[in-house]
Amino acid sequence: MSTKVRTADTRERILTAACEVIAETGFEKIRMRMVAERAGVSTALLHYHFDTREKLFTEAMTHSFANTAVDVERDVESVSAAVTLARILRSLLPTDPQLHQDWRLWQELWVRALRDETTRQFAVDLYAQLHEWVADAVRRGIASGEFTATDVDELSTLLLSLSDGYGIRLMLRDPTVTLETALTAIWRHCSAALGLPATIPEA
């Protein structure tokens, strides 16, 4: 195995471990040693790759988002635009254990962004990437003729806002909100704006 591959593998293990520890413990309580132990590396090696907790946190958030996007975009060329959009919407909610962990990371990001300007800017940039991810899926559907033309940015902002709102209620285990009702409500806006069937397609 080349040095470059080993380095990439080590970073992957560290970032995966960081996501787990931050989600379990909270950013304010984690110590670099805790992440190193979870990743199975020395603290010195962890500091070699990430010299501060703040850098580790932002890299972990980016890592989490990138992994979700890769999973959602699999075989994107062979499925309909509606299925791709439905996959994205499901990934924006805590629909499985991994996404539940991702949501805990987002909640840590929101809290930290309220107190730290650098984190606030990072959070805004991440939202811009999320917005573009949703918008690009909508644009592809419009370009292919599968979707009715609409204001892409307005719809994308609405979908992200709805996902955040319902996601928080789901994370709180609010008994009045279920994953099914949340997805149905969000998709209702998609179907109305894009001329799609009212039933969300299977992913």
TrEMBL record:
<protein>
    <recommendedName>
        <fullName>HTH tetR-type domain-containing protein</fullName>
    </recommendedName>
</protein>
<dbReference type="InterPro" id="IPR036271">
    <property type="entry name" value="Tet_transcr_reg_TetR-rel_C_sf"/>
</dbReference>
<keyword id="KW-0805">Transcription regulation</keyword>
<dbReference type="InterPro" id="IPR039538">
    <property type="entry name" value="BetI_C"/>
</dbReference>
<dbReference type="Pfam" id="PF13977">
    <property type="entry name" value="TetR_C_6"/>
</dbReference>
<dbReference type="GO" id="GO:0000976">
    <property type="term" value="F:transcription cis-regulatory region binding"/>
</dbReference>
<keyword id="KW-0678">Repressor</keyword>
<dbReference type="InterPro" id="IPR009057">
    <property type="entry name" value="Homeodomain-like_sf"/>
</dbReference>
<keyword id="KW-0804">Transcription</keyword>
<dbReference type="Pfam" id="PF00440">
    <property type="entry name" value="TetR_N"/>
</dbReference>
<keyword id="KW-0238">DNA-binding</keyword>
<dbReference type="GO" id="GO:0003700">
    <property type="term" value="F:DNA-binding transcription factor activity"/>
</dbReference>
<dbReference type="InterPro" id="IPR050109">
    <property type="entry name" value="HTH-type_TetR-like_transc_reg"/>
</dbReference>
<dbReference type="InterPro" id="IPR001647">
    <property type="entry name" value="HTH_TetR"/>
</dbReference>
<feature type="DNA-binding region" description="H-T-H motif">
    <location>
        <begin position="31"/>
        <end position="50"/>
    </location>
</feature>
<feature type="domain" description="HTH tetR-type">
    <location>
        <begin position="8"/>
        <end position="68"/>
    </location>
</feature>
